[in-house]
Design goal:
By secondary structure, this protein is α/β, with parallel strands linked by helices. About 35% of the residues lie in helices and about 10% in strands. β1 (about 5-10), α1 (about 15-25) and β2 form a beta-alpha-beta unit.
Length: about 220
């Protein structure tokens, strides 16, 4: 029987690559996206496109409004998206986002009978978010197996992070080899109404540099 898995699908480059990896591994992929009060819906539109293109078993968009708390440029429109990274953890960090997302994914996985949860976190070419580090995902896996019926009965969960030690260029090459259409994805923090990327935010810079270092054309539609 095909093994079920839950894949966190943001609509960005990394999550699309992770979905392709899980699909190639033979999993029946159940993709999970979040409408969490983010600045724009373009990434959710991208997630839907990717889910259709990769023929996932199921795709759910979960409503979880974190904008009520604010504290991030991605959920509070009064905080501008920076064009240059500053010192320390950037204002685009959403407090506890991956902890919350993984917790929801864990609940769905337990109901599905899935024991693998894939997430596209990366600790090489990234913005410095604390919840993208291997220490965090390892700790969450421990929590998953301590705090669930399946875990305490010995049916262990695994948090799969295949991109954790890859550069953005390596991720792009991997995705291209797996047939990922990166034109379907959205990485920008500040897209316009036509879903064109700003080309200036940290996410755009990391993406553009990744394509350049991979020696591949960037299919992103930029403003201007």
């Amino acid at each position: 029987m095909t093994r079920k898995t839950v894949v966190l699908l943001s609509g960005g480059l990394d999550s699309a690559t992770v979905l392709a990896i899980a699909t190639r591994a033979g999993h029946a992929c159940h993709a999970l996206s979040f409408r969490y009060g983010q600045r724009h819906g373009a990434e959710l539109d991208a997630a839907r496109r990717i889910a259709r293109a990769m023929a996932v078993a199921e795709h759910r968009v979960f409503d979880l409004d974190l904008s009520g708390f604010g504290g991030s440029a991605l959920t509070d429109r009064n905080i501008p998206v920076p064009e240059r990274p500053g010192a320390g953890i950037p204002v685009t960090y959403v407090p506890a986002r991956n902890t919350i997302f993984l917790s929801v994914a864990l609940g769905w996985a337990e109901v599905l009978g899935a024991r693998d949860i894939y997430i596209g976190v990366n600790a090489i070419d990234y913005s410095g978010y604390p919840d993208c580090r291997p220490e965090f995902t390892a700790a969450f896996e421990t929590v998953a197996n301590l705090g669930t019926k399946a875990g305490v009965e010995g049916d262990r969960f695994h948090i799969r992070t295949p991109l954790i030690e890859m550069s953005k260029a390596q991720i792009i090459r991997k995705g291209v080899a797996l047939g990922v259409d990166y034109a379907l994805t959205v990485s920008c923090y500040a897209v316009d109404e036509a879903a064109r990327a700003c080309g200036r935010c940290d996410a755009c810079r990391l993406r553009a540099r990744g394509f350049a270092e991979a020696g591949l054309p960037d299919p992103t539609h930029y403003q201007g």
